[in-house]
Amino acid sequence: MNIAIIASVILGILLLIMTVLFIFRIILTWYPNIDLTQFPYSLAYIPTEPFLAFTRKIVPPLGGIDISPVIWLGIITLLREILLGQQGIITLALRGM
Predict the structure, then answer these.
(1) Which of 9, 56, 69, 95 has the fewest CB atoms nearer than 10 Å to its CB?
(2) Mean pLDDT of the chain
(3) Is the pLDDT of residue 61 over 90?
(4) Mean pLDDT in residue range 42-56
(5) What domain range includes position 52?
(6) How many domains, the chain?
């Protein structure tokens, strides 16, 4: 198996996991009384919080609503489409091999 194919599969899995984690973070914003550092919530909190903390510095919560998980979900979805979608850069490069 070609290393480029393996790399694209790993990248696809990583982007999928991050997508799911950010969706969980969006859902968790509906429950403000949950302690995110407690298991099982920490499974979504620990890997996503560095991204969200950075984004909150740039885009503060609007009207008390934290939109940073939505921003990152959009970024990751866009990245996945640009790189691995039907007309994605990596997909087209692999077809040319």
Answers:
(1) 95
(2) 89
(3) no
(4) 93
(5) 3-95
(6) 1
